[in-house]
Write a structure and sequence with these properties.
It is found in: Cell membrane; Membrane. Monomer. It is a peripheral membrane protein. Belongs to the dihydroorotate dehydrogenase family. Type 2 subfamily. Its cofactor is FMN. This protein is of the alpha/beta class. It has one domain: TIM Barrel (Alpha-Beta Barrel), CATH 3.20.20. The protein is built from 13 helices and 13 strands. An eight-stranded parallel beta barrel has the order 3-4-7-8-9-10-12-13, surrounded by five helices. A three-stranded antiparallel β-sheet has the order 5-6-11, with no helix packed on it. A two-stranded antiparallel ribbon has the order 1-2.
């Protein structure tokens, strides 16, 4: 129904307009009391889907990636579509408009999206006010730096966001891999990245002691365009800083093999969707094998089918996240992935 009726209508709108329209409709449906209907349609409750990763128990391993609910507006409502966790953000200390519009483009022939949003958000303190309400789902906080903040001061921005969100999110994601903030990816280099992560680790210990709770897991989100040498550095950094895991991957700058017309394909920004499927899976496999499965990995990038999700899990991911696949395939994709995981687990149990 989604692909044949809803999506064609939504895709008549500009991509960013369609995003805001979809949010408005979800909010209206929720206020009309339709949450129970959506849960009956899309949520699978089965204890075999539960996963305990970096100390958190997830109802199922399929999450909504950061960038969709930047300002923590509908994180509870998205759980009605079957997600086991929702990652809000990327949030920055101060509100920022992001890059000039038009900045979001569909590549229909490739089932991809190019975005150069530029961390548009209303600021971490605005999001905190909405995060104070009761959570029906595990919530991750994806944090970044403001565009005007120099890289030499980047750690301050991450710390502001971390301290503000600490009481209200279940885990943190350090985003240094977006291609849409000038110079941000330079923070993936070993020295500046280790500096940021070590400062966040200290803040984690302090916040936990102050709030008399456990420390929150800290994950690092990386680009798919890193070399083998850079990926080995990431493994070393995770070991040295003792953060809790990696999210692989963010969007890519590569335009290799695209079918879409050059006027769209050559737009600046990060590319997500089907063109990223294989590349992100290869990064997951590399990290898992080279680290000897030393830390959890959340796999994201080009998951448009249940098979795509299973491949990422088999490559070494503990959990997966959707973004572009959710746009193209609709909420039914979450249910199909969870059903496939159950079927795959049953098949493996019978084989053994």
């Amino acid at each position: 129904m989604y692909k044949y009726f809803i999506r064609p209508l939504v895709f008549l709108l500009d991509a960013e307009t369609a995003h805001h329209f979809s949010f408005a409709m979800i909010r209206i449906f929720s206020r009309l009391g339709l949450s129970g209907f959506f849960r009956s349609m899309f949520v699978i409750k089965d204890k075999r889907l539960k996963r305990k990763v970096f100390g958190i128990e997830f109802d199922n391993p399929v999450g909504l990636a950061a960038g969709f609910d930047k300002d923590a507006v509908l994180y509870n409502e998205f759980s009605d579509f079957g997600f086991g966790f929702v990652e809000i953000g990327t949030l920055t200390p101060k509100p920022q408009e992001g890059n000039p519009k038009k900045r979001l483009f569909r590549l229909l022939d490739d089932e991809g999206i190019i975005n150069r949003m530029g961390f548009n958000n209303k600021g971490v303190f605005d999001a905190v006010e909405r995060l104070k309400k009761k959570h029906r789902v595990i919530v991750g906080g994806n944090i970044g730096k403001n565009k005007v903040t120099a890289n030499t001061d980047a750690a301050k921005d991450y710390l502001i966001c971390f301290d503000a969100l600490f009481p209200y999110v279940d885990y943190f994601v350090v985003n240094v891999s977006s291609p849409n903030t000038p110079g941000l990816r330079e923070l993936q280099d070993k020295k500046p990245l280790s500096n940021i992560l070590l400062k966040l680790k200290r803040a984690n210990t302090l916040n936990a002691a102050t709030n008399k709770v456990k420390e929150k897991p800290i994950l690092l989100k990386i680009a798919p365009d890193l070399t083998a040498e850079q990926l080995m550095d990431i493994i070393d950094i995770v070991k040295e800083t003792q953060i809790d895991g990696v999210i692989a991957t963010n969007t890519t700058l590569s335009r290799k093999g695209l079918k879409s017309h050059l006027t769209i394909a050559e737009e600046k920004g990060g590319l997500s969707g089907k063109p990223l499927t294989q590349k992100s899976t290869e990064v997951i496999r590399f990290l898992a094998e080279k680290s000897n499965h030393a830390f959890p990995i959340i796999g994201v990038g080009g998951i448009h089918t249940a098979k795509d999700a299973l491949e990422k899990l088999q490559a070494g991911a503990s959990l997966v996240q959707l973004y572009t696949g959710f746009v193209y395939e609709g909420p039914g994709l979450v249910k199909r992935i969870n059903k496939a995981i159950l079927e795959n687990d049953s098949a493996q149990s019978m084989a053994t």
